[in-house]
Each structure stands twice: as structure tokens, then as C-alpha cells.
What we know:
Layout: E1 4-8, E2 15-20, H1 24-41, H2 46-62, H3 64-75, H4 79-103, E3 107-111, E4 114-122, E5 125-129, H5 137-149, E6 152-156, H6 162-174, E7 182-184, H7 189-197, E8 201-207, H8 210-222, E9 226-230, E10 236-239, H9 245-257, E11 269-273, H10 274-289, H11 309-324, E12 328-331, E13 346-349, H12 356-359, E14 366-372, H13 375-383, E15 387-388, E16 391-394, H14 398-407, E17 415-416, E18 431-432, E19 435-436, E20 449-457
Parallel strand pairs: 5-6, 5-8, 6-7, 8-9, 10-11, 10-16, 11-14, 13-14, 16-17
Antiparallel strand pairs: 1-2, 3-4, 4-20, 9-19, 12-13, 15-18
Amino acid sequence: MTSQITTINPATEETLETYTLMTNDEARDAVQACHEAFLDWRQRPAEERAGIIRAIGKELANSKEEFAQLMTREVGKLIGDSRDEIDLCTQICEFTADNGPKALAEEEREIPGGKGVVHYAPLGVIYGIQPWNFPCYQVVRYAIANLMAGNGILLKHAENCTGSGLFLRDLMERAGLPANLFTVLIIDHDQSDLIIENDLVRGVTLTGSDTAGRTVGQKAAEQLKKTVLELGSNDAYIVLDDADLDVAVDACVAARIYNNGQTCVNGKRFIVTAKNHDAFVERYAEKMKAIGMGDPTDDATGLGPMARDDLRDKLAAQVDESVEKGARAVVGGEVPDRKGAYYPATVLVDVKPGQPAYDDELFGPVASIIRAEDDADAMRIANDSRYGLGGGIFCRDEDHARKLAAEQFDTGMISLNGFNIAIPNMPFGGVKNSGYGREHGGFGMKEFVNVKSIYIMENGSKS
Length: 463
């Protein structure tokens, strides 16, 4: 077993920090300490828990620049994107504090011979396994909702952003969260299985690839523990016959390049009807070609590095295989000769089934443009995927687009005439191989609770 984790700046290739992995005994003790903190936390009134969550949001705002700079050093995010990430996390804390007590309040219902009470009780310690692309947001998304519900939180963060996980723990405790209630586990994958097996762990949530989701979901199922899985995707953005091309091109560039192209709900497949295909390709390629790579700490940089060399190399291999099978790179498509895990903004056309650019998730700044015959064919192609997390429709007829989104698009989140990542008051999650369960919008607060039925009978009657 490797005994240490070393974090590397993907832009400069410099070593940042080295961390020692916990022993199995230390990890087990950490779970026990989190459970003991939970036993007190679950007794706190919802309003008190909400107050501490509000304070966490304020501390995030106060620590915004320091945290943003750390995330950019660890994973290569553009510094502006890192700052925006902290803003989103602050908004999540505010939404949860504002809405949590009401969402979790007991409900009374009429029952024969008495009164029924629906009570939302916390389950216990919830284990989160999170990726590197949003070092703060991925954690806040599940942790804040579950802290509001009264649960304890364990985090196994991606190795390359270990520092961000520890920073967030310290930040929460500065804001008044009890010690050990949010616990960072510095462990490897084998040790992670032991955490899932621990009787004190009552639920497991993972954000990652569908391969990782199968592994973790199966392990948790063996222990009869509930999971929430937010997995990968190959999101389709559909440009219909009556789309405003200026709007579509700008939004589709943003949808592909945001966060250096490393977002589960980035636009990845751009399905354009024959009427608009050639004009879209010309305009889109021009804008993508103009995006320059550079220092992610510079506000003027358009595209930073990918998070690790191996991720860049995997993306390059997917592009090469797609080209070998008939796709064409009209922009980019080659690893640059420079220091850092950089890959250029790339546009692939002639994308067909059987190519990675069509079938798989390309997790980086590579756009796959697919020609459709008409609107119906575009929707067919959009749904021709094992994934279903997000997507988009560009169409001047809002009623038509809304009807397509509601009735035909087999995916969890759909943007009409624009691009969105996540909004605190709207549910987040997908279908098919993109996972199950929902976060945000109040839904995440009830994913890991015991929904209790309490029957209060009058005069000894029974239902």
C-alpha cells in the first residue's frame, strides 16, 4: 500500500504537498469520532443547524480568494472559475439555511381513529467519495444538505485535491461546526471499501465515472446501504432548425470549455440539424480556435490545463481513436509541446457511432459535432446514449422546446437556449448510466433520512 499522497500543480508540474495515508485503525477511529459527533448533532434543533450552515456560507465568502487560489494550484481551474465555485457554494449554504427547517419539519396527516405524523430523522454517518473537478462544490453539494438533515459526514476526496478537502474541514470548524462532524479520510481505495463496510456508516454517495459508480454501488448494496450516485455523461446540446445560431454558438462554446472542459454537465455532443450544420461548424470552430491556453491564475487566460497528465493522455487517445475511425479535427486535436497537462480546444466533425467522440464521455475541451437530418433525428441522436445527466435545446419556439424537454429528452437536466451548471433551488441528477438520486432544490436533504410514520391513536383505537 502506498503510504503517501503527493499533490502536483498541473500547470507547472511542481510538487505542492505530501500527505500521509491513515492506517486502518486511524480510519476506523475517525468514523467512530464522526458517529459520536453525530449523536449530539442530531439532537440540535433544525434552526440551530441552519444557523451554523449559514455561518459556513459566510466563512466561505470570507475565505474566497485563499480557497480559490488553492483549488487552482491543485487542479488547474481558471482562477475565475474557482472564485465562481466558491460563490455557488455560498449560495448553497444560504438556500439550505433558508429552506432546511421547513423542508424537514414534521408533517401531520389525518388517519382513521387518530393523527399521523411524518418525521424526518437523520440516518447517521454518510460517506462521500468525491472527484477533483470541483474541489469545494462537489463536497458542499452533499455535505451541507446532510448536515442540515442532522447527519455526520465523511469525505474521501480525490487525491490531487487533498488540500482542498482539509481546507474545507478547517473552514467549517471555524464557522462553528462541531469537531469531527465533518471528517476527511486520507485513505486509498482498499481502505474505502472498509469504510463502506463499517456498521456506523449508514449511506454512501459518490460523484465520478459510471465505472466507479458500479463498483461503489455494488459494494454498498452488499451491505444493504443506500447510495446516491452522480456519474458521468455525454450531454447532448441540440440545435434545431429554427435556432438562433448566434445564441447557440456562444452558449455551446461556453458549455464545452467551462472548467477546462472537465464537468459532468458540460455540453459534449452538439447535434445540429442539416439546415444549420455547416454554418454552425464554421462559427463554432472559429470561436474555439481563438481560445488560448495559458496560466490558470491569469484572469485573461481562456483555457487552463487539465487536472493531471494521465487525464490529458486519455483524452488525447480518445481523440486519436475517433479520428482513426472517421472523425475529423477541424480545430486542435494534438497535445501541445509545453510544460503542464494542457490540451487545446478541439472541434471534431463527422462524428459517428462507434467512435469514442460519439459513444463515450470526453472529459476535456473537445467538442463533438454531429449532423442530424431534422429536428426529430436530432432528438433521436440525443437520446442515443447510455448516459442521461444534462443537455440543451436551442429553438426560438420556447413552447416547442419545453415540450421536447419534458416529454422526449431522456435526461435529468435540460437548458433551453443557454447553458447552466447547477442552481441551488433546482434538483441536480440524472438517469441511465449517469446515476440516480437528486441533490439541490431541497431534494438532497431527504436522500439520507429515515422517513418515520408515527401513529397517534385516540382512545386506544386502531386503524
